[in-house]
Amino acid sequence: MSLQEDIRPASLRSDPDDVTGSDGGHSNKKPTTSLTRIEAVGDAQPDNEFSVMGYTPQLKRLTIQTMLLSLFAVPFGISSGFYTAMIGGGPASLVWGFILVGCLQECVAVSLGEICSRFPTSGGPYYWSYALAPPSIRTMLSYVTGWLYMLAIWMLDLGTHYGTAILIVGAINIYYPDWTAPVWVTLVICYGLYVLSTLMTWKGHRWVPMLDTVNAVFTGICLVAIVASILGIAAEGRRSASFVFTHYDWSYSGWGRGFTFCIGLLPGCFVMCGIGFISSMSEEVAVPTKQIPRAMVIGIPVAILSGLVFILGCLFTLPDIDKLLNAPGGSPMPVILATATGSKAGGVALLSLIISNAAIAWNALIVSTIIQMLIALIGLGSSSAFNAFLNVGIIGVDLAYGMPIAISLCSGRKLVKDAPWYTGFLGKVCNIISVLWISFSLVLFSMPIAIPVDAVSANYAPLVLVFFMGFSALWYIIQARKVYKGPPPVDFLVSLDIPELPERDDQ
């Protein structure tokens, strides 16, 4: 991956004053903007901020909010981590852990929103790290952050594909409970999903924005339909409120009372770890300096509320926990739905809603798809491969978020004080909490979910993370430091009321 890829909209790359001539050679003209010449145009009207350069925002105000539902994919995210939550203490851990993660991720959202308000670019963390870091280390930090972010996206996408494959196997097990799917079957289904997403890239890319909007609406419908169905039918009765909110059993993990609760944080982290991804829409909305931070901060409460609705619906109709932990393929959700509806067909129907809600990246690239498919081979030798994929993704995205937050905090938050969405002392508190939370999550998601462990049940997340980061560091020393000089100039910032940005090292 080249971190110097031009991230500007197509309309900007055709600027007649670009440094590249029409014949492909280099022109003597200098670019109209650089990271040292970002001019303010005052308080432009929302719909006119981008019209200064002839660029029309593509997303309506409502769209950026509804995309959050599609991004979080709450039913799928919670379903994928339900097994881990049961190992990690059960119902009480899932409910209160989800709320706790939401509060901590809200601090991350406030911190990122403030930075994004200062530097609203789709480059996200790797651009922010460069803009905020001291000149002596900003290029290296930007490069490392870019690799972390890319790895996180790969692994979260892989986790989504692999998790969807597990749910599909679970749907089959509803009708054939005695059938145990070999791991290669799950892998083949995962590969089939990759083929579908790749075909969407080639043939259906023009429909992707529409699919995002449809999926957002569909997510809300799925949530209501599933919860209403299982609570309304409750074929085997309903659990008490005391069970749902206070039942806590740490005996399954082997870790002890305290750390077991932390194991149960995975579902919340998986659902809400993508809050920073919304920054990629900075060049598609009318007022990115305000709309993107607002979307980030509002998004977490939306995720908490919708997540609790789904969680409580499942817990009030929860079958025996031992039965869930012995579910075929390690996927409890098919058992929950089939038991609650008292019908195999009903269970499969509701499970199909969750599967169709999976936030699979329909704009996957060929190279990244091949890499993800190769990493998925870990599943052939490890029963905890799915958790490893999610853990690496969560660790990677948290570290990518944490890098610019920590840099800003260590520099006294000087560069965000002029941000249109500056939060003052609250922002500093959120920065500190975010850095502490991300540091803890790095340790948490490097640990196995249960002990003792063997070669099959071990958590391979640290191994995968160290391998890729070691490779990126080696490549930086050998080659990348010679060619990577920081993010490209982002011309669309000319139309925004943004102070001067740091100069690229090659200018």
TrEMBL record:
Quick one: where's region Disordered?
1-34
InterPro entries to which the protein is assigned, alphabetical: AA/rel_permease1 (IPR002293)
Membrane-crossing segments per the record: 68-88, 94-112, 147-175, 181-202, 214-235, 255-278, 298-318, 333-355, 362-382, 388-409, 429-451, 457-478
What Pfam family is a match for this entry? AA_permease_2
One GO CC term on file: membrane
Bilayer topology reads:
Multi-pass membrane protein
Task: Give an example GO molecular function.
Answer: transmembrane transporter activity
List where in the cell it is found: Membrane
Entry keyword set: Membrane, Transmembrane, Transmembrane helix, Transport
For this UniProt entry, what is the primary localization, expressed as one broad class? Answer: membrane
Q: What is this protein called?
A: GabA permease
List the taxonomic lineage. Answer: Eukaryota, Fungi, Dikarya, Basidiomycota, Agaricomycotina
